[in-house]
């Protein structure tokens, strides 16, 4: 007979309904508390491994989790069998992302049996879902620790409970969220850094789980963001990406100051860091002041990722995207007028419930009109707990697949044409390292985030160089290192 364990002592469970609430409570800016005295050396001679799934926000959260663990004395390892603590930082955006996590947990059961002292934890967006936590409690009882996206700063206390309790410790706050400053971080890259400028999302697109898993939109104070970027500049970082689920909503929640994303970008522009990017934009909040500031260029690069999701106003309405096809195209027109060489990229969902052939063709025509340099394209996948999951979906999977293929043909044809236009041009590349496919080749990115491969000495890694494009391809550009500085195009 299955026993029912009493987890109440260690248990704060998620609740999607509570997570949806947006109250009037003011966002509190709290400081990360020091690691408790008795936990400061708990990781001495022990190793940690964090496996990260999903978006850049999660990658950056893993940098914070690593920072906290290292303050407790843990050191990193890349091997599961060497680890004393393994954390899976999960993504809830698509069902197959969740399947992968459960698959990994199943595989790790054996390791946990061999090493009973191993702490196995699940955090990130999946842990904010009731259904996931219930499944963990029922079928993955060997998991020691589950904590949510609002609970990262509590890790030392949660770990303390997990180490000494022998029961699964679950703490997932379904709250709107606060801002925690001064969290330690171990940045995984010495060249490019990610900086959160805001957390959460209030848009509630009908297909998306993020507003439930990440809480309400709340911005970090400008002085905290700017100080972090100045510090990164002092440390020699060459590129910073400002992060948020919807960066264009930055500052909307400030009650005491009138300071929006355009103002922040204008101040970041004055900091001596060579390249500044941001992700992700929501077209609805992209205002004229921001366009004006981006047109000043300098360290603000000419690349904007501007998710459209669909070219049909009716589908956009069902998605609750809060803009029409015409409004989106007007925004693109304004951006292109202010920054004629801008590179636009996007995200598109095909086969949203009820999408007709005509509506899909509107997406194709929008893609042709905007001429994106690249696009992330997906077949709609329902997420439990979202309104779209309850919508009637009469589009057969074969039709969805066929639409995706037609869309990708158009996207690829434009991408190739855009890259072909760079043949013979000299571009500025920040060299990131050896190419993943060939260690004799170096690779890096242009200001517009295009991947460039070329042959050159290893000491160029970490530097800005000039490369003449000789072989443009659909997704990458091959070129030759130009040793003598020459006039370049702004890509
Ligand atoms: S803007 Fe829409 S798609 Fe993006 S995180 Fe918010 S709800 Fe999700």
Automatic annotation (TrEMBL):
Cofactor binding note: Binds 2 [4Fe-4S] clusters. One cluster is coordinated with 3 cysteines and an exchangeable S-adenosyl-L-methionine.
Sequence positions that bind [4Fe-4S] cluster 1: 55, 91, 125
Cellular localisation: Cytoplasm
Pfam families in the record: Radical_SAM, TRAM, UPF0004
Domain TRAM, chain residue ranges per copy: 420-483
Cofactors demanded by this protein: [4Fe-4S] cluster
E.C. number(s) listed in UniProt: 2.8.4.3
Domain Radical SAM core: 187-417
Assembly notes: Monomer.
Name recorded for this polypeptide: tRNA-2-methylthio-N(6)-dimethylallyladenosine synthase
Organism field: Thermoflavimicrobium dichotomicum
High-level lineage: Bacteria, Bacillati, Bacillota, Bacilli, Bacillales
Name of the gene: miaB
